[in-house]
Amino acid sequence: MTEPSGLTDLLAKSSKVLAFTGAGISTESGIPDFRSPGGVWTRYDPRDFAFGRFVDSAQVREQSWQMRRELLAGTPEPNAGHKALARLEQGGRSLGVVTQNIDGLHQAAGSQRVVEIHGTAREVMCIGPAPRNGTPAGCGFRAPVSWAFERVDAGDVDPRCPRCGGLVKSATVSFEQVLFPDTVEEAFGLAQECDLMLAVGSSLQVYPAAELPLVAVRSGARLVIVNDEATPYDEVADLVVRGRAGEVLGTAVTALLGMT
Ligand code: NAD
Questions:
Q1: Residue whose CA is at the smallest distance from ligand 1 atom 22
Q2: Which CATH number goes with the domain that contains 237?
Q3: pLDDT by residue (tens digit) across 198-231?
Q4: Which atom of ligand 1 is nearest to the CA of 118?
Q5: Domain residue limits at 92
Q6: Cis omega (within 30 of 0) on the bond before 208?
Q7: Is the pLDDT of residue 38 over 60?
């Protein structure tokens, strides 16, 4: 692939790049986005696992572990896009990554500062015995998701917190769940601080996360959008690169920093 026009130049002029990533950066690792044909989201509707339903129904909780297992099936590896963003950070040009993804692939690629605005599917957490208003009220217990899968396999289809007996849920932000306040604050702070916002593989339609590019622009940053289809923010971007995230970022960062 030839160097995506203008992207390497803009990266070269920036010392505080902030990547803001969505499901589209992980499709080249084999993790489907909401629209991928045949993907897990064609079999499950995430609204069926909204926070209130999860809290109220043992059956929904039991189904959620099955869904989680399918979501994490196989051993997805970071692709050229995740690796390029990690290289940018290692090269001292980036503040890090704010991601809507829950798959942990930025960390697997070597990124150090990763703000997971919708949480992580790699861990589970206690949300308390009867949390209300979309707000977890747990005792602080967290464990790798394998902890829950092992209990489910042993016949405990609705595993409870070993410390307080509360409900245990994937450490993701579900529909109707309040975002984790510290994480949101960190993400918006980084958006205000960056000099280049690189929005990658996101339809930019899920709020409040999708406000981050606008916050960056209003704070004086340039905005680059890398996506394989149009987004609502293309008009305000300094550069729109239409293409596959892994190829686009891999090529641009190699042009900037050279081969490893
Ligand atoms: P989205 O599914 O709404 O949008 C993804 C965008 O990326 C689409 O515009 C799509 O055309 C584009 N795209 C897909 N593959 C691409 C590629 N290889 N290169 C460039 N563009 C590509 O995703 P979103 O904006 O992140 O919002 C949906 C929500 O879905 C988020 O909250 C996220 O938490 C969740 N989600 C996460 C994962 C994951 O963790 N990998 C997967 C599915 C959904």
A1: 24
A2: 3.40.50.1220
A3: 999 999 998 888 999 999 999 999 999 999 999 9
A4: 34
A5: 1-31+78-118+179-260
A6: yes
A7: yes
